Amino acid sequence: MPDREPREPAQQTPRRSFREGLRAGLPYAVAGGVLSLTFGVLAREAGFSALGAIVMSAIVFAGSAQFAAISIVAGGGGVGAAIGAAALMNSRFLPMGAALAPSLPGRALKRAAQGQTVVDASWAMASRGEGNFDRHFLFGATAVQYVTWQTGTAIGAIGGSAFDPLALGLDAIFPAFFLALLLAELRDRRSGAVALAGGLIALALVPFAPAGVPVLAASVAALAGLRRRSAGA
Amino acid sequence: MSSQMMWALIGGCAVVTELIKAAGPVALGGRELPQWAAGVIGLMAAALLAALVVTEALSEGDRIRVGADTAGVAAAGLVAWRGGSVLLIVGVAVVVTAGLRALT
Fold first, then answer.
1. What is the pLDDT of residues A130-145, one digit of tens each?
2. Nearest Cβ partner for A101 among B17, B24, B50
3. CA distance linking residue A159 with residue A179, whole number of Å
4. Which of A82, A142, A173, B62 is 20 to 30 A from A68, comparing alpha carbons?
5. How many domains does chain A contain in total?
6. ipTM rounded to 2 decimals
């Protein structure tokens, strides 16, 4: 693919965008497959049946929320607390969905359905700047990740007792994955400062706030965006 | 865990996730965001991703701690910063974390 050629919007058909999304999503899909395998194993250890773990990945399909929910019930927490933590973890999809909204056509129900395809990596990669998103690219990038997310969960949930996720270092996958996304997100000094502030806020709250709240509170750092950009920044 | 609890948890998580993902597109579909909101949203991913990374790599429940996975994630960060692919990044995280645990 020649990358120097100026890209004309007219040539960017939905089908082509979708295929580009599939390709761009593939490395995240492979990493996500290993991550979901870990989820399958941990869900079984938390007392889920294999079917429960598989159904959860199929209809929730949100890694951090799934991990947060099962870690709370595994630690003796109640169902309500686990659902609350999952909601807090997913709260980042509110601003992501709001940012995507102008790029989604159709009636409310159709837009709601299209909004379900938002996952971190796809959303970040589908951004075309200036608040525009390539929705077909988003659908493609998410589709390939959905497939491996289900496959990995099934393998982990059914065959999970065969290996120990901690000994294999699988718990490092999730933060490493998000770190890769974060570094791709840092475009200028301001986003770097916001990331630093977000990380510090979350870490400072860990000893005091219930699970999930430190991450949600870190979103306050993004209020730096209210300040007008200085020229050249 | 009873099977009833498990299904309540799964159903609850699915409903909140789907409502949250639908909220933005339904409320704002087809309309441009005001300038101030776009500025905040543009920085939201950086803030939340950083928070996810540090809470995962540096805490356990309500305790801040450094473990083998912290080193694994730090090594992965170095690879990411040097422009490594996402698979290499994740691979380094796993190998360093598992290696340190095997040694200790």
1. 778 999 999 999 999 9
2. B24
3. 29
4. A142
5. 2
6. 0.84
